[in-house]
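Below is one such protein, fold included:
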Amino acid sequence: MSLSARLSAVAALAFAALLLAVPARALEEGVEYVRLPVAQPTETGDKVEVLEVFWYGCPHCWHLEPTLNSWVATMPESAAFRRMPATGARWDPHARAYFAAEAMGKLDVFHEALFKAMQVDKRRIYSENDLVKFAEEVGIDPKEFRAAYESFAVETKLAKAKEMQSRYGIDGVPAVIVNGKYRTGPSQAGSTDRFVEVLNGLVAQESGAKAK
């Protein structure tokens, strides 16, 4: 192995260690994360649910993607990760599009591509027609996508997301909900690195509670 390859491998291992590291200092409730007034139901069974709430038009959400993807690749066996699109007047079309792609089994080709189109290519993809055209660009049948976008199933998921967003007390993204009990994020934690530490600490805490 060449020197550059060895250095790359060491760097990758160091980053993975950071993602799984136990927090260097105690977590500060009410500062780095908040406890929700009422614990909310989760959808991951016996696993500790880590739920990201995001919006495709949010640059902070885009910048968090690589960190979260790396964390998911190395997360503890006791944890499970899922996403929920943010809802609201301007956010609803993107939420519907996410749920439509999910219903079609096309998130793997749609999710990152839409993020990149909006955040890297600076494209304005906001309306239903914009999103249908974009779906076609990435190889999704536009008629099927529009049908899914306008379906009762997607409307039901959107309504549930609106309710849960309210229950989580989310008024900005990105936000991460841990096990239906805690809300945190990079801005609240103070930095992306500290956010990862807070996330690991909360997951470890909840994993320990489930094991008892």
Observations:
- The radius of gyration is 18 Å.
- The first strand starts at residue 33 and ends at 35.
- DSSP finds nine helices and five strands in the chain.
